[in-house]
Amino acid sequence: GGSLTMSISSEMLKNMHAEAEKVWVPELAEVMKVTADPFINVIYDCDPLPKLQWDNVVLVGDAAHPTSPHGLRSTNMSIVDAGTLGQCIGKYGISNLSTALKEYEKYRLPVVSQQVLHSRKLGRLKQGLDYKGHGRNLHWKDASREDCLGLLQRNMPFFAGAPSPADSEALPLMMT
């Protein structure tokens, strides 16, 4: 069908349990064994979007930044999208909506693009896959201190805050 979530076969379950015993701590392997109905949820990864705005149409939230769940930032990114959009519309008004939306894109596109790519990197590292520029597969048993620190959430680009129109012009967040 059209779902990317699927049940697993008994053979897949057997292989998953065997692999879990080799890779994970015993407690996690046991949790996997006692899970009644395990499933596979396919994660589709896409490149950052080339733009967020077309005429009087703008993308916000998950539509604006197709990030994988590895970065744990989707909701936060959406909230910042809404705040930035409100600031831009507040600055230019509805009569200059196109200008406001272009400014929204100017602030948000570079930020969300970097966050999407960082989330991809986290996903590949957490799954033990190679990623461009890394040059090797990362397995938790072989991970260096630097590898582990790279997985911390605080290393997400703009984790502590992203630029906004309020930074340069002290525009209060418009709440309507």
TrEMBL record:
InterPro entries the UniProt entry points to: DHP_3-monooxygenase (IPR053212), FAD-bd (IPR002938), FAD/NAD-bd_sf (IPR036188)
Pfam families: FAD_binding_3
GO molecular function: FAD binding
Domain FAD-binding: 51-116
Matches recorded under SUPFAM superfamilies: FAD-linked reductases, C-terminal domain, FAD/NAD(P)-binding domain
PANTHER family, per the entry: MONOOXYGENASE-LIKE, OS06G0597600 PROTEIN
This protein's name: FAD-binding domain-containing protein
Species whose genome carries this gene: Nymphaea colorata
